[in-house]
Amino acid sequence: MELIELSLNDKQLIKDMFVRVFASPPWNDDWSDEKQLDAYITDLIGNPNSLALGYFEDGVLTALSMGWIKHWYKGTEYYLDEFCVLTEKQGTGIGTRFMEGLEKYLLSKGSVQIFLQTGADMPAYSFYLKRGFAELKGHVSFAKDLRQ
Fold it and tell me: What share of the chain is helix, strand, coil (3-state, %, to 5)?
């Protein structure tokens, strides 16, 4: 198993895996708009502080993280936007091994914290809790639909 930093050169590989995972339950995201998908992945992996890592098993991208490095007063942190494991590999320990590898990698690069958001009703919620992430009490996420 190998942890590899990914770039825009890997965009198609990333898009294929991302859609494969997130178009399936429990997310059921509709990524049929190829332009929107391409722009989203480019946003995540194509900026100066972007950091995308792939976890490869026998040459196959099995797990993926996409986010960015944020320089913060508490130290450098990784803002994790997307983390996924191939659906058929979930529950096999790959996510845990990938997260452990990700944490070691980030520490070696000077990051002191990972920040992420997830839905409380998603399987990812318990995954993160089991891996030592703490829910931020008093932290609130806001969104506003500008079309209404």
Answer: 35, 30, 35
Instruction: Tell me how far apart the alpha carbons of residues 141 and 127 are, in angstroms, rounded to a whole number.
Output: 20
Phi and psi of 130, rounded to 5°? -65, -20
**Cβ atoms of 110 and 103 closer than 8 Å:** no
Residue 27 lies in a domain: yes
Which pTM value belongs to this model? 0.91
Is 25 domain-assigned?
A: yes
Strands 75-85 and 113-116, by their bridges, are: parallel
% pLDDT > 70, the chain: 100
What does 56-82 look like in DSSP terms, one character per residue?
EETTEEEEEEEEEEEEETTEEEEEEEE
Q: What is the pLDDT of residues 92-118, one digit of tens each?
A: 999 999 999 999 999 999 999 999 999
How far is the C-alpha of 134 from the C-alpha of 54, rounded, in Å?
Answer: 24
User: Which residues touch 72 (CB under 8 Å, ≥6 apart)?
Assistant: 113
- The parent domain of residue 49 ranges over 2-130
For the domain that residue 19 is a member of, what is the CATH number?
3.40.630.30
